[in-house]
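Question thread 4412

I'm putting together a teaching handout and wanted feedback from people who do this every day. The idea is simple: show students a protein as raw sequence, then show them the structure tokens that encode its fold, then repeat with a second protein so they can compare. Below is the first pair exactly as I plan to print it.
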Amino acid sequence: MFFLLRGSLAVFCLFGFFLASQKRGKALGSNDLSFPVSNPSSSSPSPSSSISSTSSTSFSTSGIPPAKTIEKVCWIHVQKASSWIGDYLVLQNCPNVASAYREYRRTNKGDKSFIYDLLFQGKIKAECNIKFCPETFGFHNPYEESKMKGHVVAIFRHPMNRIISAYLYNNEMMIPTGMPWDERHPIYNARTEGRYLPIYQYVQLPGMIGCQTKLTLGHNCGAGEKEIKIGKMEIKKAIERMKNDFAFVGLTEYPIETEKLYRAMYGGVELKHIQPQKIKYRENKKHTSMSHTELYVNLTAYNWKDPIDEEFYAAAMKIFFERCNLYKIPVTTVLSDPLAHPEERKYNNSR
């Protein structure tokens, strides 16, 4: 199962020192986890509590809803959308995992896996205050209602940014999970010949659009039109599910605010060593003539759109910013054009 594609080089990574090389990427150095990790009593779970509490919202004297307790977390990992959240969730909810990780790295310096990778593979031991979905945690698995309803943590990303990051993935163009084998040949052939497909060809391959919506609906990211049809009704269903059935929605483009909103909603400690990177987009080592912004301009010139995920992402932004407002999280991240689309500018200008 661990041969599945692994996600994102965390370009918006909250680990300033955390450079990813694959889905689970390059993990922290053995001396990077010198901070204490503990759960304050305000965020400790009670046996009857759930991350998906449906009780009416109560407010503290400051007008901010009190933090909820957490019972279980299922992370839906969108390809190329913030791998940092996986380790963050483990560090927040498994008090002794940092020391276990440091000890492991002392004798396994060559293992650059994420902390959650090591934890769920049994390579390190830690007691956690919540339940996870270890069989899907960190993989690019779609939503499963029977196992995940009310417990999902997901971070979504602007469709244009996401597809460009997938194109630049690991110098070899990422194949979306679940893409039919007979439709992968253009990517495999280009890899074999040591070349890139032009990006306008890559984005038009079957299964490339609608990844985030498909995952939310319970389909693989790379499922093509032969397998599923997504129209207005399906997009509406995905948006309603994200709004009502997901415990937490964050945005790759807003890593600082995402981290603060999570703590405001579910408690936790401030992890001093977790800081967002100042450089938003890396340049691919074998493709330095095509920066992220230049690829964006190229796709815009070809009038490429992902109408499915654009509608879904706009709804994710609305949910995210409404919750930031509710929990009084200031939105300080400033996005630079052309990467900020009109919906992002609208929300930034309204604050």
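The second pair follows. I'd like the answer to focus on this one:
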Amino acid sequence: MPTTLREILETKGVSLQDTIYCRAADTISDFPMNIGDFFKLTKDGTGVSDFELLNRLYCLAEGRKKTEEYQAVCAESQRVNARLREMKGIGNNGDELITEKLSLRRSKKRLNAEKTALEERYFAQSIEEIKKECDFGLAFLEYKNAFYCSNFDEIAAVLPQVEAVDTPELREMPLFVRGIRDLSQAVKRAVPLGIVGGPCLFGAHEVIIDIHHKDGGVVQFDFSTGRKYDEHNLLTDCDMESFLSTGYKNIIRLGLKNSKRGVTYQEYLSMQYLFEFALVLGAKVVIPIPDMSYMKFFKGVTELVADEVREPALKVFEKISHDIADLYLKVIDDLQSRYPEVECQVLHSRDPGLCDLFYDKREHYIHKLFRMGQVTVNKERTDAIIDYITMLALPYYFYGTRNVLQIDSVDEADSMRKCLKIHSPEVTFHSILFPEYLSMDGVHTVYYAPLEFKDYINSGG
């Protein structure tokens, strides 16, 4: 069921007014999101730097530590600790040394307490100084241990260039970010920047698989979710992988139907955002259209099916995936006409040169990925998931940019977490992730919505 930022905070036992989000508009606090409860409430850590007020607060508190009072306590503490370390190397612990050691330990405890009290006082003074200008809370939300719930104004406070971005939709919703201050520093230094993102190939209910059996029975699955339809055309918990792995011997035909009539508004925006940010940040763009990844999944999930059944289905699905990819390519062509200053590459299965470059450049990082452990519990999905993880590094592979900004759906958070691990320290990643829009039914995101609520637009926008 949809939730909101305000409701998430309430479940964490905190009021909106006690968080950094107290200054956000109600449209942001009450924006409906279908998102899992992977949130942690925090007041410190690396996320502080991505909020201008909190970063300023901590900088003020650090600046107050330069007082003679604090420095004297630190100097005395260092002297005590140095003497205690020195005494560890002395073998003969006579009464005199024992007495000195006990005295030093008492001094260490006292000095630590004085230091903590001073730091707390400095922090409180810094809070009061900033509250003279505006009210704010210290708490903020961390998402999946890697991203921080934020909003457009917070991003712009750290990275002022984005104020020029013409994306009114992003200004009305919570955003999930990481590395924004690092991105600001990279932009100031004019280092090369790459941007990556874009839509999935298709969503729920857009491509259907009919599995025909020897007894004349037909079972229907949604390709995207992998779930079986019941007699009322509702999705069940029966999954396609399990069904095919146990019943493959009785399958005589695999029928596929493409019901995707165009590009949804959500899909269009996910591509337009890339060009808007690239224009104001002077970045280069890579958009992956993952038709090859969907084909890898289909090949994996039908591996046990007889070749005379499987091969014709693979050809039909290839045609469907190319037809859908062409919808996106048309939109990207139109966007490139509107943003001629932006350099953009598009990865898809019918560009063998870029595909070969992608597979070659990522090889080293795939070895690192496997050393981290199992990629997924679903063997059939492994090759496709490896694509999703490594596609986020495409600007590095294609342009050599060591700073990469991901502008993407929040559903891609897990892929970025893995991508970060395998490409560190060669690549510095930054992220601006947006929640999926709810469809007109008010329940499902556009991705999961029934066809009648997909909100298709003309492919040119």
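Top answer:
Good format. For the second protein you could add a caption like this: The first strand starts at residue 39 and ends at 42. The domain at 194-457 is CATH 3.40.50 (Rossmann fold).
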